[in-house]
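Re: beginner question about structure tokens

> Can someone show what the tokenized structure looks like for a real chain? I only ever see the sequence side.

Sure, here's an example I had lying around. Input first:
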Amino acid sequence: MQTASKKVITGWAMYDWANSVYNLVITTTFFPAYYAAITGLKNFPNGISFLGRHFVNTELKDYVLAGGFLIVAILSPILSSMADYKGNKKNFMRFFCYLGAASCSLMFFFDKDHVTLGLMCFMFAGIGFYGSQVFYNSYLPEIAAEADQDRVSAKGYTFGYIGSVLMQMVGFALVILMPDNPLPLKITFLLVGLWWIGFAQITFNTLPISSIKERKEKHHVLINGFKELKIVWNQLKDMPVLKRYLTAFFFYSMGVQTVMLVAIDFGIKELKLPDQKLIITAVIIQLVAIIGAIGMSKLSSRFGNINVLIFTVLLWIGLCIAGYFISTETHFYILASLVGLVMGGIQSLSRSTYSKFMPETKDTASFFSFYDVTEKLAIVIGLFTFGFIEGISSIRQSILSLVVFFVLGFVWLLLTSVKLKKEGNIL
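And the corresponding structure tokens:
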């Protein structure tokens, strides 16, 4: 196949521009900062009461977010099946986009008297974000030839980082104009939702709709997605390289995604960083992530995807160990910069590597549903483990525990590399 026109590729990448503000502004900066201020010991000296038990505030947030990911993992097969049946992945993508964006904007009403509302909005925003990603990712092999997939994938992440930094700067300006006031953070929640919906229209007006001939005629649509996951699972038995790669991806995703979701919490709780410095840190992470996404795309073309991923996971292991020992703001900024560098690259490269390992098929949604379910289950385990260890020990111990996941991912990447060499392939 040929790569789609520049207009289609740019339109696809613009969804990263639209929804990445959720990842940066909501999950990694403004919501953690606002949540910590609202749910801290000053307002809740005995912890937050939820379902008859008192929780450490960030522990509860991790559990709620993990619950959202579990819902997405369960829904993903159903959604991809319905999308294939109806032939309108774009409409399902649009629904989750609007769900996520509306949830972000409703966070404007989150305060100390409405903690449950804030947590539910946080969860549904995540469901909207990751639910739409199932369909967004499945477009990649449909619009880009294999030789261009690394470049196109990196372009999406790059657009996302640039867009989210711009939105971050808007929020930062509001915080500077109204210091020591929660209103700027709440206004930013509202703006994120509007940004997400607004720029997503470019994507929805550009991406193609499947022709009637390509649409699947199915019965029992609600269970077909799970049947297709089983089919993909059975196919993996005859694809040892892809099976090993997915196992590696499953383990290192537990670490990567968890770090991305809790890094700012560490700065708040352990180093007591104020909002302005947290925002600066998040901007640094996003800016170097652009360099990481582009840089790893170029490195993969020279050294191979798997070799670059192996090196990157080794860096993650070092970062988690270093995170356990850091004690100053300077250390945190340096570590945050390194996290950003490997964060963008490993996400972009993981997606395009999976796309290359996939067999030739028109059923891209099912294969990417399997990929997304794998990632979401990994995040559920990672977040739950992180929150549980923090609840019984400390957030530093939680950071250190993630090393186990990265080591397992590293081992399985090595096994993938060995199998590739035996088959005479280099990727």
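Each token stands for a local structural state, so reading them left to right follows the chain. Residues 64 and 123 are 6 Å apart (CA to CA).
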